């Protein structure tokens, strides 16, 4: 399917690895010019070169730094001639027991996973509306729909973003001007973050890592983990000309793990 977005410009956050990189790869293969961001300059520059090799006709600019910093956000947006597509993504806060979290822990989680994407949305969507095209995809978590007790910081902060988007996406001045805002909720994808979680589980339970990995995969109806590339492909479709009638939605990609109807 021709997605109709070749020549567009996209900002992709946390794009040096994992799901963010999967989204950047998918957009690059559709001929989209990119401004990518991540904290590690070395990893980000390597990813930028990989993306350029996917399509010699696209431009790829790398801006390293913490996207939670106003100065970094300004630099990222300044590097993008025109933001047609915004992929909000950021690492999640650590797991734990809410009894151990301080006020500062909550502030950090909300800043990273709610306020920062809102600031980027605020800086871009009105111009998208003037241009008559805009796509915002927020990468959140399957835990927004099926909360996990040890991920309270993430549950809270990402649910706050979800609630905000539910109202904003339906504003006629955005939806009526071909600007869509949707959330992608990943389940278990084969990323470094998942590997770290599996290693921690294996260590804490004195189990073999491969055994833990297999048991986790078998607990998913699809009997496997998702890949970053298939996540990216779905993200790219949401950014396409074919997805203009889809907005304000929370789309769960979890191999069937969520057991509910709605």
Total strand segments: 7
| Residue windows where pLDDT falls under 50 for at least 5 positions | none
- CATH topological fold name: Rossmann fold
- Average pLDDT, rounded to a whole number, is 96
Biggest sheet layout:
7 strands, parallel
Order of SSEs: EHEHEHEHEHHEHHHE
Indicate the radius of gyration in whole angstroms: 18 Å
CATH class: Alpha Beta
Q: Globular, elongated, flat, extended or rod-shaped: what is the shape?
A: globular
State the helix count.
Answer: 9
Q: What proportion strand?
A: 5-15%
Report the CATH superfamily.
NAD(P)-binding Rossmann-like Domain
Structural class: alpha/beta
Count of distinct structural domains:
1
Strand order of the largest sheet: 3-2-1-4-5-6-7
**Range of helix content:** 40-55%
Label the CATH architecture. Answer: 3-Layer(aba) Sandwich
Alpha-carbon distance between the termini? Answer: 29 Å
Brief sketch in words of this structure:
InterPro entries: NAD(P)-bd_dom_sf, SDR, SDR_fam. The protein has 262 residues and is α/β, with parallel strands linked by helices. It contains 9 helices and 7 strands; from the N terminus they run E-H-E-H-E-H-E-H-E-H-H-E-H-H-H-E.
